[in-house]
Amino acid sequence: MLPKTRGCAAYWLIGCESPKLCGENRLPVLRNVLQYVLHLHYQQKETIRDSCRLAVEALVPFFIRAGFETDHLIEVKYACDKLVKKFEEWIHLKKSMNRKTNPRREAFKSSLDKLFDLGRKDAMNLIKLEEDRAFYKSMKEDRLATMSGVDMKLARRKARKEKKDEGMRKLKRRSDEAQLVLFKKVLSDTIDDPAVESGTENEDEGMYAIAQYQTLNIILISKLNATCFISSRIPSTCQEKKIS
C-alpha cells in the first residue's frame, strides 16, 4: 500500500479508493468497482464479501440505465462471487509485488480497465432496443459510447407499464373476490336445493353418497353457468368448477 496523498489512500495497481461508485456516463470498469470496495472494506469496516455485495448492488442502477430493464438479465450473486475472487486475487498478487515479472499480475492489470459485467452470457440477445445493444457492445469493447442522463422516454414507458400492471392486479383481485362470493352463494343455494335430498332409506349408504355427490355436482355446474351468463359484468372468464 502506498502512502496517503491529499487525504486519499492510493492502493497498488488500483489507485485511490472512492466513497462512491464512479462511472461518469459509462458503465464502470473493474477498477472503479474495486476502488469502491476498498473504501467500504478499509474505511467503513465492512467484510470483504459485504463490501463486494454492496458494490454490486450500487452497480445495478448503471445497468438498468443501459437497458437492462428486467432482473433476469442481471446475475447479482454470480457477479458478487466474481468480485470477491478478484479482490482476493489482488491481495494475493500484492505479496509478490516486488517481482519483476509476473504473468498473472499483467493479466490482472489488463482486466482493471475492462467492463465489470453484471449481464448474463446471452444478455446481448435479450436486450430489446438496438441502441441499448450497441451501447452494451461498446462498453465491452472500445468504450466509446456514453449515456446521457436519464432516458426520459424509457422512464415514461416504465411508469406506464407499472401503472398498467397495478391496474391489472387490482382488476384480478376484484374478479377473484366476486367469483368467491358467487361460488359461496351458488354452493349455499345448491345445498338447500330439494334435488339433493333425493334418495330412499332402503338404498345402500355408499351408493347413496355417490349419487348425492353426482347430483350436487350437476346442479352446481348448471347454476354456475346460468349465473355467469347473467353476471357478464364480472371481468374474468367463468369456467365450470366441480367440488373435489
Brief rundown of the structure:
The protein is mostly helical and 244 residues long. Helices cover 58% and strands 3% of the residues. The chain folds into two domains: 4-149, no CATH class; 155-230, no CATH class.
Polypeptide structure, described:
The chain has 8 helices and 3 strands; from the N terminus they run E-E-E-H-H-H-H-H-H-H-H. 17% of the residues are buried. Strands 1-2-3 form a 3-stranded antiparallel beta sheet, with no helix packed on it. It folds into 2 domains: 4-149, no CATH class; 155-230, no CATH class. The protein has 244 residues and is mainly alpha-helical. A hairpin with a 2-residue loop joins strand 1 (4-5) and strand 2 (8-11). Helices cover 58% and strands 3% of the residues. It has helices at 30-43, 48-65, 76-94, 103-112, 123-126, 130-140, 152-191, 205-230; strands at 4-5, 8-11, 15-16.
Distance between the termini: 71 Å
- What count of domains describes the coordinates? 2
- Report the sheet with the most strands, covering strand number, pairing sense and barrel closure: 3 strands, antiparallel
Model regions low in confidence, pLDDT < 50 over at least 5 residues: 1-5, 199-203, 231-244
What's the arrangement of strands in the largest beta sheet?
A: 1-2-3
H-E order: EEEHHHHHHHH
Radius of gyration using CA atoms only: 32 Å
Q: What proportion strand? A: under 5%
- Counting H and I runs of at least 4 residues, what is the number of helices? 8
By DSSP, the count of extended strands is 3
The chain-level structural class is mainly alpha
